[in-house]
Amino acid sequence: MNDYLHNTIPNLKPFNYEVHHDSHFINKQWVLINGISKKKSIYTFKADNILEISRKDHVIKTSWNISIHNIFFIETEDGMITVKAFFKDDDILVLNNQSKEEFAMYINATNYDDDINSVEDIQAFLKDKYKKKVSTIIYDHEFYYIEKSEEFGPFKVEVLAEKVKTGDISAYCFVRDINEHDYSNRMRISDLIQEL
Hints:
The structure is a single chain. It is built from 5 helices and 13 strands. The chain has helices at residues 2-8, 17-25, 119-140, 157-165, 189-195; strands spanning 13-14, 30-32, 42-45, 50-55, 58-66, 71-76, 79-89, 92-97, 103-108, 142-147, 150-156, 174-177, 187-188. Strands 2-3-4-5-6-7-8-9 form an 8-stranded antiparallel barrel. It has a 4-stranded antiparallel beta sheet with strand order 11-10-12-13.
């Protein structure tokens, strides 16, 4: 079963009680994205083992438990299901059904300002999320640049942007990440500045 899941969604982190339970899982509004175009469901796992499932104008209260091996038992309309939980990142939860080759994927909409009601809303959420993530990574990272066959750096993007602004270097100089060995990615300073 796990091969099916990991082939479909790579780079999943298993649920870790100490890391995820209180800060990432409990009392968060998890929007089920499977079948969102037909009906929207929000799952909220409460600390007292109550699971609230909100749909349009009604709320279903059911139960959930977790075993010592991070296996979840969730009472649904169809009976008890056993799932393993994984995180794609802090805001994407995957519950893998242990008796079938299927999984449910959820987005944590707790701190998201817009409603998630459709596939287009999911795409907007992901675009916004990963744009912020890329900006943060780029902002904190350092890069070398090459100009007139000489290498300079490493510098953070804000320093490179300032050098371009003052005319000290061209925005079209090639850059490489400090972890890369050459300039084969053909990325330019202007590409980095554009992502900020």
